[in-house]
Design a protein that fits this description.
The complex is a heterodimer of chains A (107) and B (136). With 107 residues, chain A is of the alpha+beta class. Chain A has helices spanning 3-13, 15-27, 32-39, 43-55, 83-104, and strands at residues 30-31, 59-64, 67-72. In chain A, helix 2 packs across helix 4. Chain B is 29% helix and 44% strand. In chain B, helix 1 packs across helix 2 (31-37). Classes of the chains: A alpha+beta (107), B alpha+beta (136).
Chain lengths: 107, 136
């Protein structure tokens, strides 16, 4: 598995971090304060998760006055959603299984 | 991010199979046989019949579009909030059958796939967790 996949999987494997990311995807740009109000963990914890998400390229921050706004970078998910190559691999595998089955079936 | 939502993507898998179309057709259309190579299902060879393919990572919603026994079979294939069409074509050859599967869909437009789909997220991440469990 390519390294990019590895990082994305690991980053999104944490349920709290994933919830923060999902929230940004659903509701658009948010401040740390707004995210903390719904995250069920402390603000430093939320900030730490945002830092990890930013490292993985999944969120971007924008400073405005004293506030930092975070937004989801959906393009970073692209390596995970290469639909064509995923489905091609899936079907090759199913063709193998189909052939195995045909060999076992009665005429 | 800048790709148009309507950009079609197609997957084609073709293979020369050493069995006649009639036999392959059974494997493609009989639920207990489909289960052995594809997924658990409630398929019926009836146009417009809605069925599910079920795996441990989730389910695929399908609807039969066209059936021509021993020749072609096509059904819709919806998963992760994305719709596609799977078409099987069986062509007899001197040694068996040329079996072709074409799946046509649309590239998941970021907005649509991630912000619009009601159930896309849940399934996407369920799948992600499975994959993660495998690589650890």
């Amino acid at each position: 598995m390519p390294r990019t996949h590895d990082i994305l999987f690991r980053t999104l494997a944490d349920p709290t971090r994933r919830a923060i990311f999902e929230r940004l995807c659903r509701d658009g740009e948010q401040t740390v304060g707004a995210l903390t109000a719904r995250a069920g963990v402390s603000q430093p914890a939320v900030s730490k998760h945002l830092g990890v998400l930013r490292q993985a390229g999944l969120v971007r921050d924008r400073h405005e006055g004293r506030q930092t706004h975070y937004s989801a970078q959906l393009g970073a998910l692209a390596p995970l959603i290469d639909w064509t190559s995923q489905m091609a691999g899936f079907w090759q595998n199913r063709f193998d299984r189909l052939e195995d089955l045909l060999k076992r079936m009665d005429q | 991010m800048s790709e148009p939502a309507s950009e079609a993507r197609t997957v084609v898998v073709e293979r020369e199979v050493a069995f006649p179309p009639e036999k392959i057709w059974r494997a493609l259309t009989q639920p207990h046989l489909i289960e052995e190579w594809l997924m658990k299902n409630d398929f019926k060879p009836v146009v417009d019949h809605r069925f599910n393919l079920r795996a441990d990572w989730g389910a695929v919603d399908c609807r039969v579009l066209a059936i021509e026994p021993n020749k072609t079979l096509s059904y819709t294939w919806a998963a992760y909030g994305l719709e596609s069409v799977v078409t099987w074509t069986l062509t007899p050859t001197s040694t068996g059958t040329h079996l072709r599967m074409e799946q046509s869909g649309f590239r998941p437009d970021q907005q649509q796939a991630y912000q619009g789909a009601k159930y896309g997220w849940q399934q996407f991440f369920t799948n992600l967790e499975k994959v993660l469990a495998r690589i650890d």
